[in-house]
Amino acid sequence: MRAPDTLPEAVPLCARLLDHPARLILVPDSHAQVLILVGNVLRAAHLFAPRPVPGLHELRVRVATTSLTPPPLDPGQSALLSDLMGHALSDRGEHTGATDDLRMAAEFYERALAGTPEDVPERAERLNNLGAAHRDIHHLAEEAAELDRAIERFEQAVALGDHTLYANNLAVSLRDRFHRDREPADLDRAVDMFERLTRVATDADHDLPRVLADYSSTLRLRYDLRSAVADLDRAVAVGERAIALGPRGVVRVQALTELGEVLATRAVVRDDEAEFRRGLATLEQARATAEPGSRLRDLAVYKHALAHGPWLTAHETPANLAATVAVLRAALAELPAPMPYRRGLSRLLLMTEPGYARSSGDPGEMTRAIARLEAYEPDGSDEPPSPAEVRVLLAGLYIDRGIASSSPADLGTGIRLATEAADGPALARGRTERFALTRAPDDLERALDSLAHPDVLAESRPYGWTHVVDLIIDVARRHPTLADGRDLVATAIGLVRGRLETPGSLDE
Q1: In terms of C-beta distances under 8 Å and separation of at least 24 residues, what long-range contacts does 17-23 make, across chains too?
Q2: pLDDT per residue over 353-397, tens digit each?
Q3: Rounded to whole angstroms, how far apart are CA atoms 337 and 416?
Q4: Residue 487 β-bridge partners
Q5: Which of the two ends of the chain, N or C, has the fewest CB atoms closer than 10 A to its terminal CB?
Q6: What is the reported pTM?
Q7: Phi, then psi, of 283 in degrees rounded to 5
Q8: Closest CA to 215 of 187, 252, 253
Q9: How is residue 380 annotated by DSSP?
């Protein structure tokens, strides 16, 4: 336990001891002491081992189950072993996302607390353990009452013992309550608690890297609330300090994830591409360090993909569009289907994939984006895209695919969707492009009708009246007559004169 590098080698030895026949001849007290020692070694492997250990979570639950079979008669030993089982179930639940494990962990922590007198030092630790179980249930099951129970238990633990971990857990839960209730006082209190912890805790405190990672995340959240760049700078500084302390295991993954996210956030504020790339590299390191299939790995994948969104908004180039779409697709392919993180990434892909498909000019990419949009079902939230936004995106995609594939059917679908969405520029583009394809008099009339739409007349629009006129002139240069044999320019001018009171220079 004193040498983290040897912890992975200790795990199979613990498994052999558990299965060894000689274990069964130990007297009850010695038997329990051996299993407590084994359980503590395995928990240290979970927290501090430099690399993931396959089968560790199942082995820990086996050890804890064996230690409670038969149930010990001594109340103090029963509380200690219940705590051991709570740790094993809680860590497995955090790893797999199984709320049943977390609920069982809370039950065992309750038993441990019930068997702990008011006046013993262990009571603060067991209050903290129970609070952590309630908080984890809140995170996974999104049950508001569980967060309130967690804060109550953490407050009690902090009142009994001035321990870094207890105060950290209370501060994190206050930050989570701010997420829920949007009460700034909770966030400010959390920041104050973290700041005090970072001043009084020494580098030798093994809980300090976790505190610093949680503090970095909380400062980034306060930046989102108040836009104070000083909060971002402080978040980066404490995040870098967390990594410099050399944390291992799950704490290292958490610290890398939080630092990567805040670097990517500050990069957008500073418009600093080098820092943005550093943030992405840090998130990629978190993903590579996390155990495959763990929730921490999923979180690192999610935050790495999500970080591309704000940067793309500020720098929407074809290269950034392509990179963002590729990352989002890969993340959605990797994350489990029930994962809540998928919702945010799916929305971001819905909003970015159409632009990428249209800029690529590839009908296959347009078809892929169309299929995703047409399969989209709003979940009732206010998050984009709305049904109206979906129609606008689909209209543009169908029109672009119609142009790329010379398909009147796709152009017709795009025109219909643009009409439903009251998207004047898209409607003008669709009608004009269909006329360019068919040279039909009716399509010419509809294209010229689009000139009356206010959005088409606006100079700031990406597709306006000049685009309509220029394309009609271009068609006339290549094909002077309409499909029915009439002169295209003369017919167009006559139609314009009939629709506009002051045609101005359109005669030219």
Answers
A1: 18/59, 18/62, 18/63, 18/66
A2: 999 999 999 999 999 999 999 999 887 777 778 888 999 999 999
A3: 34
A4: 481
A5: C
A6: 0.80
A7: -65, -35
A8: 187
A9: S
